[in-house]
Amino acid sequence: MDEERPLLHSSEAPTFNKFKLLLAVFAAVLGNFNFGYSLVYPSPVLPVLQGPDANPRLRMDTSQAAWFGSVYMLGVALGGFGAMLLNDLIGRKLSIMVSAIPSAVGYLLLGGAVELWMLHFGRFLTGVAGGVTAASIPVYISEISHKSLRGALGTCPQITAVFGALALYALGLVLPWRWLAVVGCIPALLMVVLLVFMPYSPRRLLSLGREEQAERALHWLRGADYDIQSELDAIKHSIGLQKRVTCSQLAKPVYHRPILISVVMRFLQQLTGISPVLVYLEPIFSQSNVSLEPRYDAAIVGLVRLVSVSLAAVLMDKAGRKALLYISSSLMFLSMLTLTMISHDTPKPPGPAPPNFTAMMEGNLHHDAAQLASNQTVVPLISVVVFIFGYAMGWGPITWLLMSEVLPLAVRGVASGLCVAASWLTAFALTDAFTHLADTYGLYVPYCFFTVVCVLCLLFTALCVPETRGRSLEEIENYFRTRRFTDHDHPDAQSTQTADE
User: Fold this and answer.
1) How far apart are the first and last CA of the chain?
2) Angle subtended at Cα 310 by Cα 92 and Cα 150, rounded to the nearest 5 degrees
3) What are the pLDDT digits (tens) for 108-131?
4) 492: which DSSP letter?
5) Helices 116-144 and 62-89, interaxial angle, to 10°?
6) How many other C-beta atoms lie within 10 A of the C-beta of residue 249?
7) Which one-letter DSSP state was computed for residue 377?
8) What is the pTM of this model?
9) Which of 34, 69, 324, 329 sees the fewest Cβ atoms within 10 Å?
C-alpha cells in the first residue's frame, strides 16, 4: 500500500494544491492566536491594577493578583473537559467555532469591568475558550493535513499562540488595558467567519458514514487534480479497525500507551514553568533587576518565542521530533540552572521579611538609583530568552503535535480533552503557587524545581517518545498496536523501534 512508503523520502511523491489546506489551517489557528493573547494578558495589566493610580474598586492585593493570573488555567481545564464531549458530539470544526462565544463574552467583561469579579470571571471565560481550542485545533489540523506537511502544520497552533502573546506584549506598550481586551475579540470573530467556509475533517465524516462528503472535503483540501483514493482507502482501513472503546479495553497498549505519553508530555510541559514565567514575565524581570524596562524585556521575549517556534516548524520534518525535544530539554535545563544560581546568589534584604514578588508590580518600592544601577544585569534576560527559545523549539509545539498524532482515532476527541484538562489543572496549581513561593522564598525555589523537571523531560524523551516524522496517522496507530512501524525502510524506523522497546 502506498501509505506504507513515507512521502518525505520518495522521489515520486504526489503533489497537490496546498493553498486551500493552508487557508483551512489559518482559519482554525486564529483560535490559538486568541489563546496566546489571553494567556499573557495579566503581564501588562497587573502592574496597572496593583499600581497606586489603580481604580480602588479594581485594585488587587497579592491573593487577588495570584487568582487573576491562575483562574485562566481553571477555565482552560474546564474547556478541555468540555472539548472531550464536543469533539465527538459536534465535531472538531464546530467545537472550534463554539469557543468564540465564551471568548467574546470574557473579553467584554474584561474591557468593561467595574468590579473585581468581572475581571476574574472574564479571564475565566477566555480560559474556557482557550481550553476548547487547545483540545480541538491540533486534532482538526492533523486530520486534514497531508502527512508530508503534518509536522510543519502541526506547529502552527504553537506559532500562532506565540504570535498572539507577542501581539499582546507589543500592544501593551501603547494601548490601555481595557482596549487590550477589546482587541482580543477581533481574532475570535474572524475565526468564526472563515471557518464557516472550511470543510469538516474527512476522518470525522468517514467515521460518521458520510463518504461522499468526506470525498468532497478531501478533494477541496488536496485540489481537484489530486488522486485521493489511496489516502481515502487508508483512512477507511484505519476506521474499519476501530471499535467502540470500553473502559476495560483502555488497558490495551494500543490505547493506554499513546494516551499516557500524551498526558505525561502535557504534564511535564507545564511543570517546566512556562505558564508562570509567561504570565508573570514583567514582575519576574522587575525582581531580577534587569537593566531594561520589564515591559520591553517582555516584548523581546515574545519576539524570541516567535522566531524559535518558526524555526522549529522548518526543522520539524527534517531533524525529527525527538532531536528537537532533546535540544529543547537541554537548553531549558541550562537556562533554568543559570537562573537558579543567579537567584540563589542574589542578596536578600535585611530582616526577616522575604522579598515581595507582587510588590514589584505595585511600584511601591523605592530604591536608591546608584544601588539599583549597580545591581542591574542582562544575565536574567539572556537566561529567560534561552529558556523560551528552548521551549519553543521543542516542548512547546511538539507536545501539541504529538498529542494529535499518536492518539488513536477511536479515543482522539476524548483523550485530547483529557490531555488539555490535565495540563492546565497543573498550570493552575503551579501559577497560583509561583506567586506565593516567590513572595516567601524568592525566585530560587521555583527555578530550582523547574531545573529538575527539565532533566525529567530529557529522560522521558529518550525512553518513551516515538519518532513520528514522515509517518501517516494510520502508521503511527499501527505502531502502538504492533510495537513496530510497518515500513522498515524508513530512516528513523530502526532507531525508533530500538529506543521504544
Assistant:
1) 26
2) 40
3) 999 999 999 999 999 999 999 998
4) T
5) 40
6) 14
7) B
8) 0.70
9) 324
